[in-house]
């Protein structure tokens, strides 16, 4: 009488599941690395077919003569940061919309956006949808 077991355990190791895991991790890291932005300031370019954000808490305008207004009140460049900080105090996730004339130098726009970045404010550059 043969009493040996019919089911024998295989000593081989299958690498198929290990390669599946490695490929899934590779795909995951490739996808997430493309979502990381390298620049500190996200800039929406003036030529756009998209509409400006409807929710508007604060508006900052830089006119042709480089005069700055906050909610239609004139503000000096030096007092702009303190004015914006006082306006967003107590608001949850305020949105600042920046209206800059085409002839305004990029340096002026970047200064205003830098103020928003330093104070962790969300700023959107208004565009002309034409």
Automatic annotation (TrEMBL):
Keywords: Cell membrane, Membrane, Protein transport, Transmembrane, Transmembrane helix, Transport. One of its GO terms (cellular component) is plasma membrane. The chain crosses the membrane at residues 21-45. InterPro entries: ExbD. One of its GO terms (biological process) is protein transport. It is found in: Cell membrane. GO terms for molecular function: transmembrane transporter activity. Its main location: membrane. It is a single-pass membrane protein; Single-pass type II membrane protein. Belongs to the ExbD/TolR family. This is Biopolymer transporter ExbD. It comes from Thermaurantimonas aggregans.
């Amino acid at each position: 009488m043969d009493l040996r077991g019919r089911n024998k355990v295989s000593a081989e190791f299958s690498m198929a599941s290990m390669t599946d895991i490695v490929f899934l991790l590779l795909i995951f890291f490739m996808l997430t690395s493309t979502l990381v932005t390298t620049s500190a300031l996200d800039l929406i370019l003036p030529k756009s077919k998209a509409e400006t954000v409807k929710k508007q808490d604060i508006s900052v305008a830089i006119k042709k003569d480089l005069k700055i207004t906050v909610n239609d009140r004139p503000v000096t460049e030096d007092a702009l940061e303190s004015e914006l900080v006082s306006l967003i105090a107590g608001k949850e996730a305020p949105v600042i919309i920046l209206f800059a004339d085409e002839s305004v130098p990029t340096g002026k726009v970047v200064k205003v956006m830098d103020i928003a970045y330093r104070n962790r404010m969300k700023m959107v550059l208004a565009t002309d949808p034409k």
